[in-house]
Design brief:
237 residues; globular
């Protein structure tokens, strides 16, 4: 399926993204559809996630951060479930290991923090503060202005996307190598089984480490988005 030369075909990556997103959405709908004063285990678990993100928003952005909690929660949960497909049986492929997904998420983050800056400060004040930071000798603007524009408007979303993409690709390769070593070497006698046995013993450590990285990358993306929103809400000093 193509539209204006763009391939809109549904591949395995898209199906996995739909599946894990639907699973996460269903979990939140079921768990928070009829919240109780004394929460059950599922409601308490989901509320703890929201409160965790609320704490990040309030700590980094301040009182105005409350209105960004839904967005930041969506980033955190969405990235986590997309990443966790890497170690999910029968899936074993994180959509975030395809550059289009981290780039799309980073674009949303960019649109939000730039939009917040324009709304809170005004178009001229926001971009003027980026290009011409106060307190700097005017002669340095020739060098500083391009650096500030590059740093604030290009490198921020670029590093958000590349960091997530690179970690997911590296982790995916590590998981594939571990499982392949088990599959190929473990049945091999008399020498190969030693390599396969080592890979089998290392597998829980690899999966545990990858689970940590999965959560860490979701947290870093969410936290940095909050930092960028916070910096856009106030004029440069």
């Amino acid at each position: 399926l193509e539209l204006f030369g763009i391939d809109l075909g549904i591949n395995r990556t898209i199906l996995i993204a739909w599946l894990v997103t639907a699973a996460a959405a269903t979990l939140f709908v079921v768990g928070l559809r009829s919240p109780q004063v004394v929460p059950g285990k599922l409601q308490a678990f989901l509320e703890s996630i929201v409160e965790f993100i609320r704490g990040i928003a309030l700590e980094i952005i301040g009182p105005k951060g409350t209105r960004f909690v839904p967005l930041l929660t969506t980033f955190f949960v969405g990235i986590f479930v997309l990443n966790v497909a890497k170690i999910t049986p029968f899936l074993m492929l994180p959509p975030t290991s395809r550059m289009a997904w981290p780039a799309f998420l980073a674009l949303i983050s960019w649109l939000v923090f730039v939009g917040v800056g324009i709304k809170e400060q005004g178009f001229g004040a926001y971009f003027g503060g980026i290009m011409f930071p106060p307190g700097v000798p005017k002669a340095l603007y020739v060098i500083l202005t391009p650096i500030e524009l590059l740093s604030n408007l290009i490198l921020r979303p670029f590093t958000l996307a590349v960091r997530l993409f690179a970690n997911m690709v590296a982790g995916h390769i590590l998981v594939v190598i571990t499982l392949s070593a088990i599959h190929v070497f473990l049945p091999s006698m008399p020498v190969g089984w030693m390599v396969g046995g080592f890979a089998l013993l290392a597998a829980p450590v690899v999966f545990g480490f990858e689970l940590f990285i999965i959560g860490l990358q979701a947290y870093i993306f969410t936290m940095l988005t909050a930092v960028y929103i916070s910096s856009s809400m106030e004029a440069h000093h």
